[in-house]
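ok trying this again, last paste got cut off
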Amino acid sequence: MKKLVNEPRAAVREMLEGLVDVSPHLALLSDENVVLRNDLPAVADRKVAVISGGGSGHEPAHAGYVGTGMLTAAVAGDVFTSPSVDAVLAAILAVAGPAGALLIIKNYTGDRLNFALAAELARKEGIPTETVIVADDVALRDLVARERSRGIAGTVLVHKIAGSAAENGLPLAEVARLARSAAEDVATMGIALGACTVPAAGKPSFELGDDEIEFGLGIHGEKGIRRATIDSADAIVSEIVKTLLKDMAPEKTGHVAVMVNGLGATPPMELSIVARKALAVLRDRGCRVTKAWVGNFMTALEMPGCSISLLPLDEERISLLDTAAGASAWPGPGDIAEQRNVLPVARASMTADTATPAPGPLSPLLQQVVLAVAESLEKAEAHLTELDSLSGDGDLGASMERGAKALRALPDSAYANPETLFVATANTLRRTIAGSSGPFYAAALMRAAHSLAAIDLPDASHWDAAFAEAVNSVPEIGGARRGDRTMYDALAAALDAWRAARNDGQSGTDAWQAAATAARAAANATADMRPKLGRASYLGDRALGNPDGGAVAVAIWMEAIAGGIGASGPIRAKA
């Protein structure tokens, strides 16, 4: 287990201290793990206090929701452990005035007992106190009665409804009514892709196979109601949303709010993919999604997975959700468009001539060479991925494979002459090859195209100039130099070999073969170079021992060209 904690038993207190240190609107009780607003008026002038809490490990819940228009205080227990009665009572005494306090409780035995007893003690102290239980986990509906379901991420929406009502100055009974109504209507279901590790335990709470997920998990590291084989994100989300809608009364599936909640280790990319499908399914079912939030709202330490919450909306709830809140973890009113905003792309015209060019004398051979390059890059996908993973981000193989497919898709008109081919290839690689490789290849090909403008049958001197223009563009736009361990090492060696062979009187085809051989040798030599540019430079000596993927890619396509041309190919000897 690797965690950035000191003593596990001190983790909760130290977490709260760090939060309050960077949040001047918050304060921390000296002897209890209670975070409260630091801007409360005199006791007699206080509005209804809204208090929640529970075990820690659900951050940003619950302390992240303390602020104007949301919670007045949050009580934190140990990780996944209910706070004590004394801690809850201390929170009530610290923030409540004559208007009273509302306790929002997630439906777990420890939380219910300790918060309920604290409420009784507060009433004996003369503080009007109400409680609201949130039991929004629909995954358990076939196993237990609604009131016995667990309270999970939908609780955050109840916090907001109650906090806004209190901030608006409503009396305790009305704040409690609105909170109970929201708690009764909100529905949540989650899935886990893996377990989490409680600091004090030191090992995961359960184990999942590489292709397994848990449906209907809680937020304390417990297993779900069933285990299933992982499916696509769309299939999983569809099942969750359909389950949520089945739980809701038909008359309440009109205007809805959606909360896509990460459980701690799910990246924003995946949560947005979940949100995309959730909105689509809801809209297909006739729901009008008025508000939506995506992010980490109630986590389970570092558990990978997510939950989706639905809350039916009316004008009153919309108004309460719109009320501004000063809590650091609340993202705002969550207003969204009724449908995705998509605008057309304005593309620059790369040539003024829009007529389809006629095939030229080199068209068949140009197409033969391009297809040979595409085949070689497709075959090398796994090898390039492996090389790039050792010193980069691992996307080179996939990028080159996408580029190869794009080359195969070039229209016949692209092969009219070298200039037309290089422009078409530059444009398609610019769009399909990710990272820095795409722009480098596009720039090099555009330079070569410019050098061969209006030349249907270049001679060797034309190819000399075009090749030099292409290679020299790489250091010019990227700053690479020989020895930096980049694709330029292979390109520069190839250009030198080409020129030497041409000066010796070799044919263009033989000169290209010499250039390809030099590119391969230079690519292999990068294994002994300390990288000085690009992502690999961050690794220093750790990158030694394996050649640079970009340089190897250059050798691969140069060898493919060498195999694709013959003695009468486009690289012709001077007359």
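PB: full thing came through this time. The first helix runs from residue 11 to 21.
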